[in-house]
Design goal:
Blueprint: E1 7-11, E2 22-26, E3 35-45, H1 47-53, E4 70-77, E5 89-92, E6 95-97, E7 117-118, E8 142-146, E9 151-152, H2 159-162, H3 168-178, E10 186-190, H4 194-205, E11 209-214, H5 220-226, E12 230-233, E13 247-252, H6 262-267, E14 269-277, E15 299-302, H7 308-321, E16 327-331, H8 334-345, E17 352-356, H9 358-362
Parallel strand pairs: 10-11, 10-13, 11-12, 13-14, 14-15, 16-17
Antiparallel strand pairs: 1-2, 3-4, 3-8, 3-17, 4-5, 5-9, 6-7
Helix pairs in contact: 1-8, 3-4
Length: 364
């Protein structure tokens, strides 16, 4: 039974068997007055997809279609939708619903709504869908989303480059903006991968002086091209000593914090400043002591994606300044999904993948 009753996707049926994608149909949530159906054109491949299908982040419902960096065309809009019409090119990121009533939602913090629904692997609450349907992501023909979580894509940004902005880009944009990144600020970006290369680009565009800290010295040229002024190899002995008390903000995009000497990274912060996590390791951080934060009154924090106003501001800046990520494309198929997940898992990507050729896979 084809669209609109069912959507098609490349799904995994067992966590851990992350190369075993199968083409299947699934039922979307009940169509609501504020919903938009999007025929998907492309979808970015996020580290979250890898952590989910490998089981690294714990249990998830199966069968599951991952993918939350989605760009496509609106093909159906609910009667109460205000800002999107059929034919518009739009995007969906890692969140697909929130209550829009609580204090968080009313203060542009809907990404922290206690009732928020992830774009895949989460059940809708009854108020949004009487069937409490499990959400399915963007390795699929279509997605149905509430209008608040559907973003217009500026004409200046090609679809395959816009897609990774909707999770990776926003995940680093939000903490950078909330930390007051701008002229006169010293910002360190730890890790130069999918998240990190966005962070360097955004922090530089916002006016900060950017230093990249990476264990991979061969990434220096890319770091400087993206806008970093300095590059530090964390594999060098005593790398942190010359950087003591230097940075207003350290944004860690690497997902290996559990293997860091955390005290080194805290020592490079100015007094009262934060080491902020957006890379999420599979393992917990062991042995953290309050004493580690006392020499400079530093702190450690984390954040979850970003808000709608932040996403719109990010896309606007990217369009105006032609700030585009480094993206490789792979045609979507059972084989293509498996290749993308495997290569991201092995860090064999520079620096994001976008799955493309959806018309060939699902029909135009």
């Amino acid at each position: 039974m084809p669209y609109p009753d069912e959507f098609e996707g490349f799904m995994i049926t067992e966590l851990g068997k992350y190369k075993d994608f199968k083409r299947q149909t699934f039922k979307p949530k009940v169509f609501g007055d504020h919903d938009i159906d999007i025929k998907i054109e492309c979808c970015g491949v996020c580290g979250s997809d890898v952590h989910t299908v490998t089981g690294g982040w714990g249990d998830a419902p199966t069968p599951l279609c991952v993918g939350h960096e989605i760009v496509g065309k609106a093909v159906k809009v609910g009667p109460k939708v205000k800002d999107v019409k059929v034919g518009d090119r739009v995007g969906v990121g890692a969140q697909i619903w929130s209550c829009l009533k609580c204090g968080q939602c009313k203060s542009d913090n809907e990404n922290y709504c206690p009732s928020q629904v992830d774009t895949y692997g989460s059940p809708y609450p009854k108020e949004a869908d009487p069937n409490e349907t499990i959400t399915q992501g963007g390795y699929s023909s279509h997605i149905r989303a509430h209008e608040y979580f559907v973003f217009p894509i500026p004409d200046a940004i090609p679809s395959h480059l816009a897609a990774p902005m909707l999770c990776a880009g926003l995940t680093v944009w939000s903490p950078l903006v909330r930390a007051g990144t701008g002229p006169g600020k010293q910002v360190a970006i730890v890790g130069l991968g999918g998240l990190g290369h966005f962070a360097v680009m955004w922090a530089n565009a916002l006016g900060a002086e950017v230093t990249v800290i990476s264990h991979s010295p061969h990434k220096k040229d890319d770091a400087l091209k993206l806008g970093a002024k300095h590059f530090v190899c964390s594999g060098d002995k005593d790398w942190a000593k010359p950087l003591a008390f230097k940075f207003d903000f350290v944004l860690n995009t690497a997902d290996m914090t559990n293997k860091f000497n955390l005290s080194d990274y805290l020592s490079i912060l100015k007094v009262g400043c934060q080491f902020h996590q957006v890379g999420l390791p599979d393992e917990p951080l062991q042995g953290i002591s309050p004493k580690q934060f006392m020499p400079n009154g530093s702190s450690i924090g984390a954040s979850h994606i970003g808000s709608r106003p932040e996403c719109l501001a990010m896309l606007k800046l990217a369009a105006e300044k032609k700030l585009f990520p480094m993206v490789q494309t792979i045609p979507i198929s059972e084989k293509g999904c498996a290749e993308a997940i495997e290569r991201v898992n092995k860090n064999d990507v520079r620096y994001r993948f976008t799955l493309v050729d959806y018309d060939k896979a699902f029909g135009s």
